[in-house]
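Data card: per-record layout.
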Amino acid sequence: MASKAIYFRCLAVGVVASLLPVAGMAAPLSLVLEAHHFTPDHIVVPAGSRFKLLVTSHDTTPDEFESPDLRVEKILLPGQTISVMAGPLSPGRYKFYDDYHPEAAHGIVEAK
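The structure for this 112-residue chain is written out next.
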């Protein structure tokens, strides 16, 4: 029984910690996927800082937010919003795209 109590305490601490803002992190940035295009398709973030993207799909079919540069790959169902944490990044340009529609849905995160 003691091990279960310890497990649930650790789980509760982890949940609470995940809800706390990260020191120095700006407000989340929003991306929308609609008609298989990202809006905006160019985001500027501060170099050297972590950041959060909220990606919402308004498409009627599944999408996939993917970026090998940012080490992210997440599927979005129609109407769903996902949260993507990334950084800190060195100054530069980092590509992202919808893996299901890469010819149409793509963009850049630029760290300055």
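Known properties of this structure: DSSP finds one helix and nine strands in the chain. The first strand starts at residue 29 and ends at 34.

See the next section for split statistics.
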